[in-house]
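Milestone 3.1: sequence recovery, worked example.
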């Protein structure tokens, strides 16, 4: 029988640090063959992602992103994930879409932070009080257990609601001040105009950008990119697809040489000094869904 791994069953057997190690190991395998397609209707998006990694398998993920859904008490993101065997192409598992998305997205950022952020980081600012903001608190807490967390959201009531749900989480009322006090800034918003200003950044910080996924979206301005050493999870899914990099590249504010490495050159993900600013753009990608799904299935099978 083909296993279906539910959200609850999957989470019971996995952890953040183990996932980041699996993502790193996945990038030691041959480079993934990936294919993405996007369809738009106003603010709504249909995203189809698929990946094949020799030695790991095949994953297909379809996602709908409807930003107005939360107002109707419906999740913003929905979809399905299927995992296929690498050798004979048979269906290996059906895995809960939200399980894969949660762990892939936050784990993607955490892998970069474990290598680029200062190990002594103690103040972590979460920009955005949505579902991903909550997941980031969980993920970053695993790697930085002594850190203090603060959340800022454009609508303060949402930040206060998130803080009421998470013990020890503080609410920032002024973003510029909160950025100046942070060691790590992780952004997960739906902004199409930059929210994070490079003039606010301080030496030694690590910036993690997650929210922008469309060609017209960005969370940080040109100054932030120009002041930092810039890294991405995948050249193939970020440079020509996401406004965070696509716009400054097209306008000459950034060059491709300024984007120093992606995860297939993971040895370059290092901090060269205590004072430098590092910036990571989390673009996702089906290859990361595949690596995450395989990790979930392996852990589920080991526990069965």
């Amino acid at each position: 029988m083909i296993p279906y791994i539910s959200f609850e069953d999957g989470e019971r057997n996995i952890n953040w640090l183990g996932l980041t190690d699996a993502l790193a190991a996945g990038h030691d395998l041959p480079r993934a063959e990936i294919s993405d397609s996007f369809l738009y209707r106003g603010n709504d998006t249909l995203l189809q992602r698929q990946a094949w990694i020799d030695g790991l398998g095949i994953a297909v993920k379809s996602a709908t992103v409807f930003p107005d859904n939360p107002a109707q008490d419906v999740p913003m993101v929905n979809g399905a994930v299927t995992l296929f065997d690498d050798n004979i192409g048979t269906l290996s598992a059906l895995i809960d879409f939200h399980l894969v998305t949660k762990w892939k997205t936050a784990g993607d950022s955490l892998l970069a932070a474990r290598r680029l952020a200062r190990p002594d980081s103690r103040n972590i600012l979460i920009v955005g009080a949505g579902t991903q903001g909550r997941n980031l608190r969980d993920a970053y807490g695993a790697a930085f257990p002594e850190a203090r967390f603060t959340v800022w959201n454009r609508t303060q009531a949402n930040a206060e609601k998130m803080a009421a749900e998470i013990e020890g989480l503080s609410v920032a009322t002024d973003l510029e001040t909160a950025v100046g006090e942070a060691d790590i800034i992780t952004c997960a918003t739906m902004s199409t105009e930059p929210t994070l200003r490079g003039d606010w950044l301080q030496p030694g910080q690590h910036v993690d950008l997650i929210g922008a996924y469309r060609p017209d979206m960005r969370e940080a301005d040109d100054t932030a990119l120009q002041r930092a050493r810039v890294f991405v999870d995948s050249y193939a899914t970020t440079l020509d697809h996401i406004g965070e990099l696509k716009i400054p590249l097209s306008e000459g504010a950034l060059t491709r040489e300024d984007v120093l490495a992606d995860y297939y050159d993971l040895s370059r993900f290092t901090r060269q000094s205590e004072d430098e600013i590092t910036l990571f753009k989390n673009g996702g990608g089906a290859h990361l869904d595949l690596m995450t799904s395989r990790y979930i299935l392996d852990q589920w099978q080991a526990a069965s």
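The chain has two domains: 4-101+287-303, 118-283. The mean pLDDT is 95.
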